[in-house]
Specification:
Elements lengths: L9 E7 L5 H10 L5 E6 L7 H9 L3 E6 L4 H15 L4 E4 L11 H10 L4 E8 L5 H17 L13 E4 H10 L8 H12 L3 E8 L14 H21 L1 H7 L9
Length: 259
């Protein structure tokens, strides 16, 4: 199990909205590999946070933040980042609550972040045979636009939610923009951190899609959220044109590699 570094203080943020029984399972799997953990319940109505709250009564490295209204994934993560910052943490792992991410990779991600505290650590999904083909092909479009917006600067996946962010620049960026509060959060923050000079470090990690019979749930709505992402990429691309000299300069940086 990976403990907190003395020089960079990490925590794990798990945003959750109506995640069902997978939430408690995810929290237990994360605690087995990294801690402390902060769960942000984003206005859930399914009671999924109750067993986690009970768990927190006897687990000092687990904290639960409950918000009365749903604010979207980005809004929930931002609340978690604010709380983590107030507690003196410098970096936050964002880990989805739906059982898709590989908790066993947490030590590897944390070690990469400790070696490169200046970087954002970006998970790159390795899909299994159960992954929806529509989801796999659809993200290729978003990744192409993200590469354009960063001039192919090394953000290998624009949507995957398993990441480590440096907290202070992330908060400064999120406070300065109106968007990024829903499923556009991962794209917005990765691109804007890159523009700010935060280098990406990509790590491959397995992703699975739990069956609905085992509690698998997704709140992604193809039409609604893809339209949101179209608008986001349009705005980011226009902004990237103004930043072209900076992006060209960033291309001369050597890529970060771990190990």
């Amino acid at each position: 199990m990976t403990e907190i570094s003395a020089t960079t203080r990490h925590c794990v943020l798990i945003p959750s909205y109506n995640s069902g029984p997978l939430l408690a399972r995810t929290v237990l799997s994360v605690l087995a590999h990294a801690r402390p953990v902060i769960v942000i319940d984003d206005g859930s109505s399914d009671g999924s946070i109750l067993p986690v709250q009970e768990m927190a009564c006897s687990e000092p490295d687990l904290e639960v933040l409950v918000t009365p209204e749903n604010s979207g994934k980005g809004g929930a993560v931002m609340k978690g980042l604010e709380l983590a910052r107030s507690k003196g943490f410098t970096h936050a792992v964002v880990f989805d609550s739906d059982g898709q991410h590989e908790a066993g990779d947490l030590p590897r991600f944390l070690e990469a972040s400790r070696r490169h505290p200046e970087a954002m650590i970006l998970g790159v999904p390795v899909f299994g045979p159960e992954a929806p083909m529509l989801r796999i092909k659809g993200r290729l479009v978003g990744n192409w636009w993200t590469n354009l917006e960063t001039l192919w600067g090394g953000v290998n996946d624009s949507l995957f939610g398993f990441r480590i962010y440096p907290i202070l620049p992330s908060l400064e960026i999120m406070r300065a923009i109106r968007g990024g509060r829903r499923f556009d959060f991962d794209t917005q923050l990765a691109v804007r951190l890159y523009w700010r000079g935060v280098p990406p470090l990509n790590l491959a990690t397995r992703v699975c899609y739990p069956a609905k019979t085992s509690g698998g749930v997704s709140h992604f709505r193809y039409l609604r959220d893809n339209l949101l992402l179209v608008g986001v990429h349009t705005g980011l691309t226009l902004r990237a044109i103004l930043l072209l000299p900076r992006l060209i300069r960033f291309r001369s940086r050597p890529p970060l590699i771990y190990p």
